[in-house]
Amino acid sequence: MGNFLIYVAAALVGLAFIFAFTRFIKGPSAADRVVAFDVLTIISITGIVLGALAGERSIYLDVALVYALLSFLGVIVVARYIEGGF
Amino acid sequence: MGIILDVIGGLLLIGGASFLVVCGLGLIRMPDLFTRIQAGTKATTLGTLLTLVGATCLRPEWGIELLLIGLFTFFTNPLSSHVLARAAHRSGVRKLSTMKVDRLAEDTGGES
Amino acid sequence: MSTLMLAMSLLFACAMIGAALVAIRGKSLPIAILAAGLVSLLASILFLILAAPDVAMTEAAIGSGLTVFLFFFVLGRVRGGEHD
């Protein structure tokens, strides 16, 4: 029962990944792509947690932790660039 | 008891994943950069937190790592959306004609 | 490798090809840098699916974090000379 629900959630996450990737492909400006990049990172965190649940490996969660830090860093850097900083 | 917790955790996982789907739909359908930021970060914060709570229900022994991931997401996601929206506003992104209120331009005297 | 892992790896591989095409054919330089970072991010998920979590962690930190940071830093410094 629990495994089946995990699979349904993984299918929904894949659908969300496809939607956000569509925005990444056709986003007109760089800022739109940054938003899509951030959303893709967060969707990947959820996907990694689902994979850890399905494969019963807790070591995957460390990678999800690294991702949660990385999305923040990337968005801050790109925002500084758009603003004309550095 | 264990089966009930399993079902509750699975339903929370599906709820979080459907919030992510709503976020992706908003990312496609919204017409403007600012509305896309709004759709892309608020919904993903709630979706990720719901998914992490569901995973904690399924595997209570992973609670500390999942709590750390949730804390990072909860604190950094609204902050990054704020920084990105402010940078886009300063660099002069095209606004919609239906945008009625712009408090940041009013506060800074309409120059940025 | 379960069915879930196989479907996820197929999805991520197709998305990697799309992001690489965006990186090659993109109009401006920041878009190409972002697409390269996305390729690295998806590559790290593929490493994770292939059961190499340490490689995935390094790839995510170096390829998707440090490289994007470094490229945008340098691009901000040489702004105005990017048409050469």
What structural keywords apply?
heterotrimer, A: 86 residues, mainly alpha, flat, B: 112 residues, 0% strand
Written description of the protein model:
The complex is a heterotrimer of chains A (86), B (112) and C (84). With 86 residues, chain A is an all-alpha fold. Chain A contains three helices and no strands. Helices cover 87% and strands 0% of the residues of chain A. In chain A, helix 2 (30-55) runs antiparallel to helix 3. The longest helix of chain A has 26 residues, at 30-55. Chain A is flat, with a radius of gyration of 15 Å. Chain B has one domain (2-107). Chain B contains four helices and no strands. Chain C has one domain (3-77). In chain C, helix 1 runs antiparallel to helix 2 and helix 2 (29-49) packs antiparallel against helix 3. The mean pLDDT of chain C is 85. At the A-B interface, helix 1, helix 2 and helix 3 of A face helix 1, helix 2 and helix 3 of B.
Question: What's the short story on this structure?
Answer:
Chain A has 86 residues and is an all-alpha fold. Chain A contains three helices and no strands. Chain A has helices at residues 2-26, 30-55, 60-83.
